[in-house]
Amino acid sequence: MLLNLLLVGGLAAVGWQAREESRRSQAERKAHFNVPVKAAVVPPAPAFPKPAAAAAIQFEDVAKKNLFAKDRSPDIVVEPPKPVEVKKMPTLPVVYGVMAMPSGVRAIMAPNKGEAGRGTREGDKIGEFEILALDSEHVTFQWNGEKIERKIEDLIDRSGPPRQGGGGGGGAAPVARGPAAPPLPPPPSNAPPKMGDATGESTRACVPGDNSPAGTVLDGYRKTVAQTPFGPMGCRWQK
């Protein structure tokens, strides 16, 4: 009986000790609950030095001792710039006369001084120039994308069309100025008619020496000759 009492007393002591330990543990847990945690201060990372740019001298051996290109040379060849060719504008056409007609203003022009003139109007080409605008006082050409405006007075050739001179050794004999006589009709020719280069969208120039009469039809073009006070002029082929 005494031994049983000692065992019961020991069990009671163990239970009481366990209860006290449990209370102490709960008290410690409650003491740690809802406690603000201080943020840890992280020191900044140290700045690494920026690598220096590679100098070209460091690659000298690569250029001189390249095993995969025999024509490689360390000497840089700088080609000089190519000279820009500036196209020179030719001389402006010369004007022999201007006529105001019901169909518009026409001018007798020649590409160069001393050449035979022909009738031209807006849209025609004379030499390397295209006629953009034409009136009795001004003419506007287009050449190489550039517009050139001139007065008719500045382009008129006072010497007139070239004349055939006579005489031997003493130069050309003076020709008396008077009313212009109508030119003689060209001699008949059996040669086929010919057309020159295009002077507009629907016109082509006449070829010197072509004696086909006005009204001749060739490849969809009809030959027309303008009748002027100075005689037949302005030969061209109209589409």
Estimate the global geometry from the Cα principal axes.
elongated
The proportion of residues in beta strands is 25-35%
> Biggest sheet, open or closed, and with what strands and sense?
5 strands, antiparallel
* Contiguous helical run count: 3
Low-confidence stretches: 164-184
- Give the SSE order as H and E letters: HHEEEEEEEHEEEEE
Q: What is the overall pLDDT average?
A: 78
Helical content band = 10-25%
Give the end-to-end Cα distance, rounded to a whole number of Å: 149 Å
- The side-by-side strand order for the widest beta sheet comes to 8-9-12-11-10
What can you see in these coordinates?
It is a single chain. With 239 residues, this protein is of the alpha+beta class. It has a domain at 94-160 and 190-238. 17% of the residues lie in helices and 27% in strands. The protein is built from three helices and twelve strands, in the order H-H-E-E-E-E-E-E-E-H-E-E-E-E-E. It has helices at 2-32, 60-64, 152-155, and strands at residues 94-101, 104-110, 118-120, 125-126, 129-134, 138-143, 146-151, 195-198, 203-206, 217-218, 221-228, 231-238. The strands form three sheets. The protein has a five-stranded antiparallel sheet, with no helix packed on it. The chain has a four-stranded antiparallel sheet with strand order 4-5-6-7. A three-stranded antiparallel sheet has the order 1-2-3, with no helix packed on it. The N and C termini lie far apart (149 Å). Residues 164-184 have low confidence and may be disordered.
